[in-house]
Amino acid sequence: MGRGGRGGGRRLFPFYPSTSLPAAIGFSLLLLNLSQPRASAAPSPPPSSALAFDYGDALTKSLLYFEAQRSGRLPYNQRVSWRHHSALSDGLEQGVDLVGGYYDAGDNVKFGLPMAFTVTMVAWGVVEYGEEIAGAGELEHALEAIKWGTDYLDMTTSRRAFKIDASHPGSDLASETAAAMAAASVVFRRRNPHYSHLLLHHAQQLFDVAAARKYYASVSGYDDELLWAALWLHRATAGAGLGDDGSGVYLDYVVRNGHALGGTGWAVTEFSWDIKYAGVQVLASKLLMERGQRWPEEAAAAEEILMQFQSKAEHYLCACLGKNNGTNVRRTPGGLLYVRPWNNMQYVSGAAFLLTVYADALRRSGQALPCPGGAARPSDLLSTAKSSVDYILGANPMGLSYLVGYGPRFPRQVHHRGASMTSYKETRSFIGCTQGYDDWYGRQEDNPNILVGALVGGPGGDDVFQDERQNYMQTEACTYNTAPLIGVFAKLHRLRLEESAGGPPRRCSLLNPR
């Protein structure tokens, strides 16, 4: 797992067995990882700026990636044919069934916190751009990706289990899982009301535990997750018709605790599974900006606090645009947003999503983004998001798509256990952990299986990328890298269709109107 955020890097033990550590209600504890990248080759000249990308194809491939990350017994409609059933005894030691969920990245580990964040981000993408995803013919696959995750998170223990419960609290995991379930409940409200209600009920239970029993001994903390979960529960309960007994209590929690939990104070320049303040601040800002469209009484009552959240959201967005007087997000010579060497693309995809969502919120409310370096129009935010996506797809000095399987040139030695070894379906022979490391990890050949839709860690600060399996900082892909791109690809695909047709196509009505 390519780790980032306040907690720094992790240690990697490539291709040796990893133990899943889910907690109660399907959680998994975090592990840390280590390895050494190799030297990089010089980049080739930048490609033409006139490159046109097929965002619909990128969307299709991105959703396919989540099927490659599935753990457990695979369904009949599994499209990634080289994957087979795996980890079918999860939970057996504890006498429970914990089969399923997603492998986090290149190893056979199921980490609860980033898995839940992945589900939250895919769900947020569907909430914002469900019509666009449906128009691209990918809504069912997006819903399947969400439900595969929430079905697992709604379980109760794991392979070698360290429980998180009232006696052994873990507020960050509980809160993120509550956020994932709440966001998913919004997605399924009309299509599967019973499942939506079940997710919302369990999200509320989890949040109660997280808020009452605060603890997690980590430098990255849990404050942002508590606010994140409360905002998603507000969104979910407001649409569920629960009135003051539902949505009001969660907005009140955000307003009362916004300062103490850092939501109105932290001015950040990154957004990831580990540090969510930018996402929290954008969600809170949308409440303020939509006060004439959604939940007007509550938004008006909380206006002063929400404005403080919004000022911090604006700091993050202006930093991505390079329009702050002081702190901006660094850019590579090729124009890529650059936060840190380890799995930098997670920050790029997250920024692209928040910029896209905020651009739409500004457009709907008729506003511009006030930055110290000058006001930015909604089109400026969307243009920055698009340039990041285009860089990912090949408009970069290496002329390489960092989305695996997209275009003619993409990473061939992705740091991924399953993709780098011959499929069991093909050989029908067992490969032990030591054998996998000795026989496959160090090979110089391309992976026998293409991990389609995976977004790898990406190039360094000099735009240089070395496609080597051992270079895990650049070649490992993670579920939370790809997750934010689902909504962005769908939005850009719709815009491309509108440009081609000379006007917006007929809108779908499969989800609640925004």
TrEMBL record:
It catalyses: Endohydrolysis of (1->4)-beta-D-glucosidic linkages in cellulose, lichenin and cereal beta-D-glucans. Residues 55-153, 154-488 form the Glycoside hydrolase family domain. One of its GO terms (biological process) is cellulose catabolic process. PROSITE patterns: GH9_2. Keywords: Carbohydrate metabolism, Cellulose degradation, Glycosidase, Hydrolase, Polysaccharide degradation. It holds the Pfam family Glyco_hydro_9. InterPro entries: 6-hairpin_glycosidase_sf, 6hp_glycosidase-like_sf, Glyco_hydro_9, Glyco_hydro_9_His_AS. The keyword Hydrolase applies. This is Endoglucanase. The lineage of its organism: Eukaryota, Viridiplantae, Streptophyta, Embryophyta, Tracheophyta.
